[in-house]
Design goal:
- The structure is a single chain.
- This protein is an alpha+beta fold and about 230 residues long.
- It has one domain (about 15-215): Alpha-Beta Complex (Peptide Deformylase).
- Helices cover about 25% and strands about 25% of the residues.
- The longest helix has 17 residues, at about 30-45.
- The chain is globular and about 55 Å long.
Length: about 230
Amino acid sequence: MAKGQREVVQAGTPALRNVAREVDPSRIDSGEIQELIAEMTSVCRARGVGLAAPQLGTQLRVIVLEDTTEGMSDVSPGDRAAQRREPFPMKVIINPVLSPVGDASAAFYEGCLSVSGYRAVVRRHLRVKCRGLGGDGSMVDFEASGWMARILQHEVDHLNGVLYTDRMESRTFRRVDKINEPLPPDHPEFGTTVVLGESSIAPKSSAAAPLSADDLENRAKMGRRRKR
C-alpha cells in the first residue's frame, strides 16, 4: 500500500454498517474531498473495480468505479458476454442515487474488498439510472447496464451500511479458491438453487423508489427507538 493510503476496512468494522453522510456540494472543491477522491481512485485501480468511502473508514457518500480490459483479462470471453461486462473509464460519483430500470435482473458471483477472500451469488437489477455529482461538482446523470450496473449497486449499498452478504444467495457463499465448484443442489428447506444469468425476476431488495440518505437515517433512528 502506497504511503498515505489507508487499508480497506473489513467486515465487522462499524464504518461499514452506518449510513454515510451526504457531501455538501460546496465542499467538493475542498482539499479534504479532493484528497479522498485521489486516494479512493488509487486504491480502486490497484485492487478492484469499485470502492466506497466507508471502505476507507470515511462516512461520506462518495464512490469510484472503473473496469479495464486488463482488469478483466482473467475472465473468459463467454463469461464477459454473459455478464455484459465492458471496459469503462474511472467514474467518481458523489451523493449517488440509483433507480431501477425495469424488473430484469442478473445473478452472478460477487466479491468485496471488505469481505476479503470470499464470493457469493447476488441478484442485482440488470439496468439502473444513476444521478449525482462528479468529482468536479458537475451533474452526473446516466444509465448503466450489466456489470457496471452491478458495481454501482454494490458500491451504493456500502453507503447505506449494506454488504453483499446481506443480499447474497447464502448457500452459494464460498472461498475464492472454490469459485468453480458446482452450485449447491435444490434443498427441501431452502428451495430451488439459484441459476446464474439474466432473469425477469426483480431482486428481493427492489424498492418502489430510491431512498435518500435522510430516509435511511430516519429508518435507522426508528429502529434504535424500538430497541429501547
